[in-house]
Design goal:
71 residues; 0% strand; mainly alpha; globular
Length: 71
């Protein structure tokens, strides 16, 4: 991923895990709140959430990026 650990074998199941959380519409739903750690309201539990979807898509992009340099 961003820190260069995308090829780490311990990350192998992460791609499947993220994809397993994707809902029918192709987005991701909020599964938990961190009310003690944030000041804002980021949506309702169980509903599709743009912020969760953004983070999931960014993680998928980083996991599927080819780390080899283009020559």
């Amino acid at each position: 991923m961003a820190l260069g650990y995308g090829a780490d074998p311990r990350m192998a199941g992460l791609l499947d895990f993220i994809l397993s959380k994707q809902v029918q519409s192709g987005k991701w739903a909020m599964e938990c709140h961190y009310t003690e750690k944030t000041w804002g309201n980021y949506g309702k539990l169980g509903q599709v959430n743009k912020w969760v979807s953004l983070l999931a898509l960014r993680a998928l992009k980083a996991l599927t990026r080819d780390p080899s340099p283009v020559l």
